[in-house]
């Protein structure tokens, strides 16, 4: 059983290591648990830990016109820079909501996963969340060291999909 405690910032504390659904679990359940853990890291802006959910040579492409971030250090730096560009020092809490998850096992043992994501933004002076971006996400996931990791992620923001 995993215990979650509130921290001073009133966010749920994550365990030091990801909660891993065992290899015998169906791929869909295992991927869903992986994304729950990974998304919490992203929402808490724990960029180094988020980047560690990618393979060492993992690639994150945040938009069709964006230059891909290759490797964990570049992924963490890109996430931090994007947040600072968008929000500066403004206090904001983001939540990524995911739906329509599809998981396909590939012949080489990797998994192709895709889902839709919607971001909500909340600021301390306004209890009503604002809608942020929405996008389609496509991943190639592999088992690395007994854990799922992203080898490649391609994000297509909906406004760029026309």
Biggest sheet strand order reads 2-1-6-5-4-3
Tally of helical segments: 3
Percentage of residues assigned to helices: 10-25%
* Distance between the ends: 45 Å
The proportion of residues in beta strands is: 35-45%
Order of helices and strands: HHEEHEEEE
Describe the structure.
- Helix content is 23%, strand content 41%.
- It has 162 residues and is of the alpha+beta class.
Q: Key terms for this structure?
A:
alpha+beta; single chain; 41% strand; globular; disordered N terminus; six-stranded mixed sheet; 6 strands; 3 helices
Question: How is this structure best summarized?
Answer:
This protein has 162 residues and is of the alpha+beta class.
Secondary-structure blueprint of this entry?
Elements: H1 27-43, H2 47-51, E1 54-61, E2 69-70, H3 72-87, E3 93-105, E4 111-123, E5 126-144, E6 147-157
Parallel strand pairs: 1-6
Antiparallel strand pairs: 1-2, 3-4, 4-5, 5-6
């Amino acid at each position: 059983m995993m215990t979650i405690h509130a921290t001073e910032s009133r966010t749920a504390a994550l365990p030091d290591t990801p909660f891993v659904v065992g290899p015998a679990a169906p791929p869909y359940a295992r991927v869903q648990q992986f994304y729950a853990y990974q998304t919490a890291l992203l929402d808490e802006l724990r960029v180094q830990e988020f980047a560690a959910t990618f393979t060492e040579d993992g690639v994150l492409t945040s938009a069709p016109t964006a230059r891909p971030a290759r490797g964990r250090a570049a992924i963490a730096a890109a996430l931090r820079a994007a947040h600072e560009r968008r929000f500066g020092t403004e206090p904001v809490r983001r939540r990524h909501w995911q739906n329509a998850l599809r998981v396909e096992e590939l012949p080489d043992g990797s998994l192709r996963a895709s889902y839709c994501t919607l971001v909500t933004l909340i600021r301390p002076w306004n209890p009503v969340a604002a809608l942020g971006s929405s996008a389609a996400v496509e991943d190639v996931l592999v088992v690395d060291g007994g854990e799922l990791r992203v080898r490649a992620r391609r994000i297509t923001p909906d406004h760029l999909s026309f």
